[in-house]
Specification:
The complex is a heterodimer of chains A (258) and B (267).
Chain A lengths: L1 H14 L3 H29 L7 H22 L5 H7 L1 H7 L4 H6 L8 H17 L6 H32 L11 H6 L9 H10 L3 H4 L1 H6 L11 H7 L1 H13 L7
Chain B lengths: L1 H15 L2 H28 L8 H13 L1 H4 L6 H9 L2 H6 L4 H29 L13 H32 L3 H14 L11 H9 L7 H8 L4 H32 L6
The chains are: A mainly alpha (258), B mainly alpha (267).
Chain lengths: 258, 267
């Protein structure tokens, strides 16, 4: 753990060398997510509600997904460059070092410029929390917290899965973007609006709904079933099969030799 | 002219080589389009009266958008060009006996076209065979079909000239990262890539419609689905031509000014 923080400190220092570029990227990220926000805003301006969800309620949903995604992306996106590590043969170098591969991959890049997206999510949450009509009891606050943590875990698991697949394909799979960037994009609305099929896919196959939809229902008082609030914890368990797959890939790893 | 055609051909043929990437892209875009259509369906069912067009028109709009994504996507830039301006290698390009604006124009257009050629057919085909309100329909009429083709070509050229203005701005700012990101966001939002322009409030629509970004994908797609027709379509196409001339002239002017005072980075 101490080693992890040391790596983090090094990365912060190196990224701060290009201050102008750093802040420009942060500002850019901030604005990019704003266009998505305005997209949602204008849709509600016209339609007022979607399947009974109000604008403020959807904002809660949108901001938790964005929050989870941006945090996860900030710390775990090292896996995103993993296909590159394999192709260039740099992974061999990591394997030679007497430290765990995961730690080294995690610390190969940490994108602090993602803070722009994070800020955006926080602002949306600040708008949504007082206006969505939820009485914020301790249980509800915990639910929101669990949603974010569960979301981080699921996205982290997806990044690991992506890295694991690249052991076999050598190059990255663009299709995986549907699950990461795609769910960030479409997860701004509660997943039930896409219909039963999509909802069950994102419940049983890729557990996005476990942190995005079911606890959200409990949060806004659509259901009294308090168990829904704990479903994000199952989302965390999703890391295990993904990690197992990654470990399996690693054990079968043959260097590309380049 | 011949030399620019060769630049075009090199990039075009080069782009056609990435077939595996195109296949992955097709699957992704299909999923993307599918979820978009479902999302609008939910809004439609919540409040059908507020929907600004027929639902089948919207489905067609979404599928057109996905199929021709590469033609109009604002984030398609050649990183090489930005890098060459930062590193100073652009000096070699300037030594060539051809106009740098035309050359970059040909390259950007070629990449967009080759990507589209690889991707559009499968998406359109599958979308055409989906069940009724979700499927891609035929154009609203013969006149619309003809105007659509004219408008597509114009929209494509407008998008390329917008990209060119961004390339050239790198001469002035050195690091184009910021302006690039800003332009991508603005173009996406104002061109109706986030939500189609008819979904905005009336007052906002009026402003958006006269901006150059509405002339990119909004105009041809709305003509195809029959949302704009007749005189309106004529005006929209005239506006496309006007913006194309303005952006083209602006790009050339910026190049000329940059050439006069350009200081090539050493190293």
């Amino acid at each position: 753990m101490r080693l992890y923080f040391k790596y983090v400190a090094i990365i912060i220092k190196s990224q701060m060398q290009y201050k102008a570029s750093f802040f420009m990227t942060v500002a850019g990220q901030f604005l990019v997510s704003f266009s998505a926000f305005f997209g949602v805003y204008f849709m509600f301006d016209r339609f007022n509600e979607v399947e009974g969800f109000s604008f403020a309620e959807v904002l809660i949903c949108f901001s938790t997904v964005l929050l989870a995604f941006s945090l996860s992306e900030c710390f775990f996106r090292g896996f995103d460059t993993f296909p590159k590590l394999i192709r260039s043969g740099s992974l061999d170098r990591l394997l030679l070092r007497p430290r765990s591969v995961i730690l080294q991959v995690l610390t190969s890049t940490i994108e602090f410029s993602r803070v722009g997206r994070f800020l955006q999510a926080v602002i949306m949450l600040c708008i949504a929390i007082p206006t969505c009509g939820v009485t914020w009891t301790f249980a509800k606050v915990m639910t929101l917290l669990l949603m974010v943590i569960g979301g981080m875990a699921v996205y982290c698991a997806l990044f690991i899965l992506y890295a694991g697949i690249s052991f076999f394909t050598i190059e990255g799979l663009e299709f995986m973007n549907v699950f990461t960037d795609g769910t960030r994009e479409f997860g701004k609305y509660p997943l039930s609006i896409y219909g039963k099929g999509v909802l069950s896919f994102f419940t049983y196959v890729i557990p996005i709904a476990l942190f995005q939809y079911y606890p959200f229902l409990y949060l806004i008082g659509r259901t009294d079933n308090a168990w829904y609030a704990f479903l994000p914890l199952i989302g965390i368990v999703f890391i295990l099969p993904c990690y197992a797959f990654f470990a399996f890939g690693l054990s079968r790893y043959k260097s590309t030799g380049s | 002219m011949k030399q620019y055609l060769s630049f075009f051909r090199i990039r075009f043929v080069g782009g056609l080589q990435y077939r595996a990437a195109a296949l992955a892209g097709i699957v992704t875009q299909f999923a993307w389009g599918f979820l978009s259509v479902l999302m609008y369906k939910a809004f439609y069912e919540s409040n059908p009266d507020a929907f600004p067009m027929e639902f089948s028109q919207l489905s067609t709009y979404i599928w057109l958008q996905q199929a021709f994504l590469a033609l109009f996507m604002p984030w398609l830039f050649e990183q090489d060009i930005f890098d060459s301006i930062v590193s100073g290698n652009v000096a070699y390009e300037l030594c060539r006996p051809c106009d740098i604006y035309n050359m970059w124009f040909a390259r950007n257009a070629a990449i967009r076209l080759s990507n589209t050629v690889l991707r559009c057919m499968p998406i359109l085909l599958v979308a055409a065979f989906l069940p009724a309100p979700f499927k891609m329909t035929l154009p609203a009429g013969w006149l619309n079909a003809a105007l659509f083709i004219v408008s597509m070509v114009l929209g494509f050229l407008v998008q390329v000239s917008i990209s060119l203005v961004i390339y050239i701005s790198a001469f002035y700012t050195v690091s184009a990262q910021g302006i690039k990101m800003l332009s991508i966001t603005l173009t996406e939002f104002l061109s109706g890539a986030v939500i189609p322009i008819p979904f905005f409030p009336e007052a906002v629509q009026k402003v958006f419609n006269v901006l150059p970004f509405a002339s990119v994908q909004n105009t041809p797609f709305l003509i195809y689905v029959g949302y704009t027709g007749g005189v309106q379509a004529g005006i929209a196409i005239a506006l496309q031509v006007a913006w194309l001339i303005v952006l083209f002239a602006a790009g050339r002017l910026l190049v000329r000014r940059a050439m006069k005072k350009v200081v090539v980075q050493g190293g």
